[in-house]
Amino acid sequence: MMELKLIDVKSMSMCKSVGIEGFMKFSSSFLDSNLMFGVNVAPNFCSYRGLLTKASYSSTSYDASRSVSKKDLLEDTFSYKINGTNHTSLYFRDNWLLDASDDEYGGVLVNADRLPSDRDKFTFVLRASLSHWKVKGKKGVWLKLPLEKCDLVPVAVKEGFQYHHAERGYVMMTYWIPEEPCLLPSNASHQVGVGGFVINDKDEVLVVQEKHFTPALSGLWKIPTGFIHESEEIFTGIVREVQEETGIDTEFVEVMAFRHVHDVAFQKSDLFFICLLRPLSKQIMVDNLEIQDAKLFSFRTGKM
């Protein structure tokens, strides 16, 4: 049984006791990039002794002490000399770094599916990873934390990560490594809305009354409108919205007009496209969740 202790992950190296009372300091050259770990900084002392079956670590910045079983770590070997004699031993590398891939802009994308669940272990590997990426000259770090691991958010914030955006199932956080202005793109700045101008060969236009409205809009008839979904085209989005609200199938013809305004919802800008549609069906079936009523308005008679 042997125990491995690491003092400070931001300046990490190793020392070994080999049956004698004494330590030797290893060169940081054994921390090769091919072994997924490289911190070319002045090392602090660590130690282990005996046959390696269990490892634990402690951190000077967090009250953290965790045991990590051998099966959770990936073994590797390194060589060293003591009094001119060559020796070979084991060290561990896999769980010292977060699993991540390079992006096309010189940054890294952390694999959200392989994040440690334990807060202390996450603290350990996050600090080691940031040190490694800094040495490697990486720039931006994208850290996606799923809802089930939301307790890791305070750890990331304490290490310098910032919020980028959030969805129902996760929060995206970022970290800019270089000591220069951050070049990471901001969160999405716009929402995209569409309106359907559905007109038949009798010059009748499809109009609706919404079920939920402010008192000032009581009795208002309007064209069907809605928001574009993620990764949805404008022309498919408006066809979907009209069908959902009124039951009318349509064919997209063209964009008639658009408008651009700012500070609409949560300080976001808004793009709104009015699309000309040709009806392919006649039977109106109102969506009772959103729409109070739907009718055809005649331009020729000015009546419903």
General description of the model:
The structure is a single chain. The protein is mainly beta and 304 residues long. Helices cover 12% and strands 38% of the residues. Mean pLDDT is 77; it is low at 1-78 and 87-93.
Give a summary of the structure in a few sentences.
InterPro entries: NUDIX_hydrolase-like_dom_sf, Nudix_hydrolase6-like, NUDIX_hydrolase_CS, NUDIX_hydrolase_dom, Pre-Nudix. With 304 residues, the protein is mainly β.
List the helices and strands and how they pair.
Elements: E1 3-5, E2 15-16, E3 24-25, E4 47-49, E5 54-58, E6 65-69, E7 75-82, E8 85-92, E9 100-102, E10 108-110, H1 119-135, E11 140-146, H2 153-158, E12 162-167, E13 170-176, E14 190-198, E15 204-210, E16 225-227, H3 234-246, E17 250-265, E18 268-279, E19 291-298
Parallel strand pairs: 10-11, 14-18
Antiparallel strand pairs: 1-4, 2-3, 5-6, 7-8, 9-10, 11-13, 12-13, 14-16, 15-19, 17-18
* Number of beta-strand segments: 19
Strand content: 35-45%
Instruction: Give the SSE order as H and E letters.
Output: EEEEEEEEEEHEHEEEEEHEEE
CATH superfamily of the largest domain: Nucleoside Triphosphate Pyrophosphohydrolase
Which descriptor suits the 3D outline?
elongated
Gyration radius over CA: 30 Å
> What class do helices, strands and sheet pairing give?
mainly beta
- The CATH architecture designation of the largest domain is Alpha-Beta Complex
Mean pLDDT: 77
N-to-C span? 86 Å
* Tally of contiguous helical segments: 3
Unreliable stretches: 1-78, 87-93
CATH topology of the largest domain: Nucleoside Triphosphate Pyrophosphohydrolase
- CATH class category name of the largest domain: Alpha Beta
> Strand order of the main beta sheet, please?
9-10-11-13-12
Query: How many structural domains in the coordinates?
Result: 3
- The helicity comes to 10-25%
> What's the main sheet like?
5 strands, mixed
Organism: Solanum pennellii (Tomato)
Domain Nudix hydrolase: 189-304
Family: Belongs to the Nudix hydrolase family.
Keywords: Hydrolase
